[in-house]
Amino acid sequence: MIERALKALAEQYEDVPFGLHIASLATLNLSEFSFAPSGTAIEKRNPLCAVIQVADGWATLDAVEYEMALRAIDREACGAIFERLRRATHYTFEAVTPGWAADIAEWLLFSGEPLEWWEEKRAEIAGDLGHEPTALEVRRYIRENEIRTPGYIQRSLGRHHVRATRTRAPLSHERIMERLRNAPEPLRNTTAALLTEIAKLEKVRKQLRAARTDDEAEIQRSFGGLCETPGLIVETTTTALVTEILNDTWEYAAQDRGFSPNLCLILDPSPQSCRRLKRTLDGLSAATDAVVAIIATVNSYEEACYAHKGREE
Q1: pTM of the shown model
Q2: Which sign does the torsion angle of CA 298, 299, 301, 302 carry?
């Protein structure tokens, strides 16, 4: 009965693009996950586990024109905006940005060791050619076989995005706007609107992170997925490289468990637990609204840019 009541509460959020799966901890077969609750009190409460996961695939946002204009004015501010978006969507929609793609590509494609990757690639080319290749032969082989190199990934995605992912504290919203004070008005207005929505996402992320228990974090890790399920792809290249890397990542992850849930909650029949579930769903609903607003804002900027270019031609 408690499980049905919790599911009924979750059904109030039918229009929100995330899946909510509720089951008792016993039915999750936690022995498979090598997980044991930290206290017997959890077991005595006969808890349920709510697994929240993006359900209907990911949305793709074309931000090529916006990124190009922003990068031309201030690369650091450009990298910071996309990185703040990436971090703000943890526990909700997991935005796949150029920085995310660069991070994933470094270990998925190059095992975290670009120099070793190049040594292995040169040895592979030498085996195919039957002799030690010259620098020109290496470049020709790479080009003719359409091999993605570490340098190609960073150049294509943007080194400013790579730097942002490795920055402990990206530029604040105020510093970003200050650095864009001389930018064209449409670009400033679009950026201000995006930062407003990113701030909402950051607030939700902070609330969800503060409420998460150690057991819930461990259960989520125990699903063993490569990363949380993506909900939003942000493309900044005309070659759709971010999507290409995401697809490679999914193929790799699918060999095991696929992507992880976005959030897990341990619930029990108490009123406090039900209130916590409602607060969580309210937060996810607010995050949905913010993501929808971000998509609409960038789409409006992109459409205006393409319309302007069309008139010039």
Answers
A1: 0.84
A2: positive
